[in-house]
Q: What sequence folds into this?
């Protein structure tokens, strides 16, 4: 009953805000504190109690109140970051502020007139915008700085055991900013530019943490059917971390003339290109191959292992890593694990060839194979016998990985949809690149030539 009452109080505060015609003063703390008190305890409550129609109405009819709500929520994040968010009360306020901003920001980005809102100056207590001093920094900078600080708070987002607080801050950082401000395809995404610049003092620990989260994840577990017995929320964190990595490594987010500068200023790209130790390469490659092979693993107990669904993000990340770190590419090519990259790529290419919604997956898979095929070691590795039992819609054959490559390419060319025709030249180029190194072909593959 008490929980229902607190939710009712939160709902009343939302109704008050959306129905007020006059401006609510920013110094009315008793009113604003209702939004980040312990009234709600999960993101689902916030989404249910703050309907989308009311957010849009607030944006159109009372923009000052919406702006103040965002300012006050960011202010809570900044205050908590300054105090390291040690108390339980502060932690609840931070989580509810994050949940509320998660709900509001997509609707703010809907309106082109609001897209520059977070890059406006922070108002002073009298409600005026200051042009000098510490308060002149944009609201976006304050928010990103606070979020990055909060990701490394002991006993809040950094703890010995699994911590869902970090997941919520991670998800918020991922989905609400970097993919939301799409004002122009040729204009710099200012969120990414600042997040990956030297102004973000947590750039290096963030990069290494995201990399460790992705490459250190093993969804298999020890107990069969563990995903049915336990709720593994870590997969969501891994997917969010992977998406953040991909977005921050996107060199094309800037305009063409500014591209060299962006590459230099993007610390995430800088750190990625400077990884050179073989033990680091081994950790990353094994992590990527483990996750790529996960949906294809066959066990004696059907459906006993958890299946991850972010293979497209993994392929994009692998592509970017090879593109920006040639030492990693050479390490992959000299390792036998390169075939553990090849097989899932061919599986997804074969499985997606008739699905027009997966044309992007087809492109990234073909481009990775085109990149790998330019090196001799890849062609030599294709002579290894193919003994896997992965279910694929291809003729049964006994041969090598080179045979598998030819058979899958033949299926794509003959049974793929029309939007794949621009890739046919790439497929033929790959075959030309590897043909000098393939020693033998099975009868099935030879008949496809």
A:
């Amino acid at each position: 009953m008490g929980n229902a009452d607190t939710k009712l109080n939160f709902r009343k505060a939302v109704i008050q805000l959306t129905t007020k015609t006059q401006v609510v003063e920013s110094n009315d703390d008793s009113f604003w504190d209702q939004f980040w008190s312990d009234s709600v305890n999960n993101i689902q409550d916030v989404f249910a109690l703050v309907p989308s129609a009311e957010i849009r109405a607030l944006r159109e009819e009372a923009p000052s109140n919406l702006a103040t709500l965002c300012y006050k929520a960011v202010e809570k994040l900044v205050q908590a970051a300054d105090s390291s968010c040690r108390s339980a009360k502060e932690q609840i306020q931070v989580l509810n502020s994050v949940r509320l901003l998660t709900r509001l920001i997509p609707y703010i980005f809907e309106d082109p007139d609001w897209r520059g809102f977070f890059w406006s100056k922070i108002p002073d207590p009298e409600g005026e915008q200051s042009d000098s001093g510490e308060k002149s920094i944009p609201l976006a900078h304050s928010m990103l700085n606070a979020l990055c600080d909060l990701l490394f708070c002991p006993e809040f987002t950094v703890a010995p055991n699994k911590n869902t607080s970090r997941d919520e801050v991670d998800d918020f950082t991922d989905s609400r900013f970097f993919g939301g401000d799409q004002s122009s395809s040729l204009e710099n995404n200012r969120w990414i530019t600042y997040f990956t610049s030297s102004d973000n003092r947590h750039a290096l620990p963030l990069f290494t943490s995201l990399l460790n989260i992705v490459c250190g994840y093993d969804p298999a577990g020890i107990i069969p059917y563990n995903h049915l017995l336990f709720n593994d929320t870590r997969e969501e964190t891994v997917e969010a971390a992977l998406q953040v990595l991909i977005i921050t490594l996107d060199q094309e987010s800037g305009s063409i003339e500014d591209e060299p500068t962006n590459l230099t200023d993007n610390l995430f790209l800088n750190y990625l290109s400077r990884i050179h130790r073989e033990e680091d390469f081994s950790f990353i490659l094994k992590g990527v191959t483990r996750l790529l092979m996960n949906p294809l693993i066959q066990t004696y107990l059907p459906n006993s292992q958890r299946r991850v669904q972010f293979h497209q993000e993994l392929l994009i990340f692998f592509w970017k890593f090879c593109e920006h770190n040639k030492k990693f590419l050479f390490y992959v090519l000299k390792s036998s694990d390169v075939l553990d990259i090849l097989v899932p790529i061919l599986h997804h290419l074969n499985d997606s060839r008739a699905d027009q919604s997966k044309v992007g997956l087809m492109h990234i898979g073909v481009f990775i194979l085109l990149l790998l095929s330019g090196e001799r070691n890849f062609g030599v590795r294709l002579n290894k016998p193919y003994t896997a039992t992965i279910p694929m819609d291809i003729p049964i054959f006994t041969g090598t990985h080179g045979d598998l490559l030819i058979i899958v390419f033949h299926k794509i060319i003959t049974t793929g949809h029309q939007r794949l025709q621009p890739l046919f030249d790439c497929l033929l180029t790959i075959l030309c690149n590897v043909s000098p190194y393939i020693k033998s072909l099975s009868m099935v593959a030879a008949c496809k030539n």
